[in-house]
Amino acid sequence: MVRVFVVDDSAFVRRALARILGEQPGYQVVGEAANGLDALERIPRADPDLVTLDVAMPGLDGIQVLGGLLRWKPELKVIMLSVHTRHGAAATVEALAAGAVEFIDKSAFNLMDLETLRREVLEKVLACGGSAPAVRPRAPAAPGLSPDVAARCELCVIGASTGGPAALQRILERIPATFPVPMLVVQHMPAGFTRPFAARLDALCRLDVGEAVEGEKLLPGRVRIAPAGRHLRVTTNLAVVLSEEAADAKHVPSIDLAMKSAGRARPGRVLGILLTGMGEDGAEGMVALRAGGGVTIAESEESCVVYGMPRAAWRSGGAVHVLPLPEIVAFLER
């Protein structure tokens, strides 16, 4: 039984979440709080596996509460609720980078469409489940994965979804500005969230991090993040091409499309990395990269928030190596 605690200053939102989750087999709502102070007092007593937490509340806001909760229980899974505004997007990105695993657009509650809301909530809550897997001590490097592998790579493409913002921050803040190849990141996020996400990473990292723009050339020392709501491909001279339509893509931006185009642009010269996330996006892209002679790494289950996309890549034969996040960081640092 997954124990859930709901924190929101809106009584309507609390009731809606409690109803949706309370009716779901295997889930139990063990408490509610209307503000941050009450949440920090009640949650340790209720000892939940998962917390839904409003970003904007009077008094202590969701970011402050999140910090307190993760200090108390680092493995706790927290899903943020945020309104789709510039301030809300920036605060949500900060929360995701600080350790929240997912977020729900709070505007869905105002639509009063209970079935749509139910699907949105359950998709994310069920994917996250209970307590996060503990990150185990660093595993030995996989056979054949050495600095020599990276020497032949001319582009690095990283895909991520649920749990990705914190994992990406952990990777990118460790990489020096002299990193010898361009990096392209596809992180599943709604429109309006990737720009503040890129800005936050740019402030924390030695690399030049930004949201990708049409026609921009990918260069060493730079990380470009695919803008939400648009697919990203690269040309043979590593220029960015953005588009909004792709009939065969479930996610926009699509990790598969970005990886496949990278493989065509630099056959056998691409390092593909697939991090935590639900679903299968990226699996086909990893298969294409590997078939073309590229190097592919999937994050292992022990460090994933959601072991969905990396598992799909492994099962489909797209992952040459499977490593926990600390070992991926160590490899890129080398």
CATH architecture annotation of the largest domain? 3-Layer(aba) Sandwich
Shape by Cα distribution: elongated
Biggest sheet: strands, sense, closure? 7 strands, parallel
Using only C-alpha atoms, the radius of gyration works out to 20 Å
State the helix count.
Answer: 12
Number of strands: 14
Straight-line N-to-C gap: 42 Å
CATH class of the largest domain: Alpha Beta
CATH superfamily of the largest domain: Methylesterase CheB, C-terminal domain
Count of distinct structural domains: 2
Helix content: 25-40%
The CATH topology label of the largest domain is Rossmann fold
Walk across the major sheet and give the strand order.
Answer: 8-9-7-6-12-13-14
Defining traits:
alpha/beta; Rossmann fold; single chain; 334 residues; seven-stranded parallel sheet; 37% helix
Summarize the structure in words.
The chain has helices at residues 11-22, 36-46, 62-72, 86-98, 114-128, 147-151, 164-172, 194-204, 255-265, 283-291, 309-315, 325-333; strands at residues 2-7, 27-33, 50-54, 77-82, 102-105, 155-160, 183-187, 208-211, 222-225, 231-234, 240-243, 270-274, 295-299, 321-323. It is an alpha/beta fold and 334 residues long. It folds into two domains: 2-128, Rossmann fold, CATH 3.40.50; 147-333, Methylesterase CheB, C-terminal domain (Rossmann fold, 3-Layer(aba) Sandwich), CATH 3.40.50.180. The strands form three sheets. It has a seven-stranded parallel β-sheet with strand order 8-9-7-6-12-13-14, sandwiched between helices. The chain has a five-stranded parallel β-sheet with strand order 2-1-3-4-5, with helices on both faces. The protein is elongated and about 55 Å long. It starts with a strand and ends with a helix.
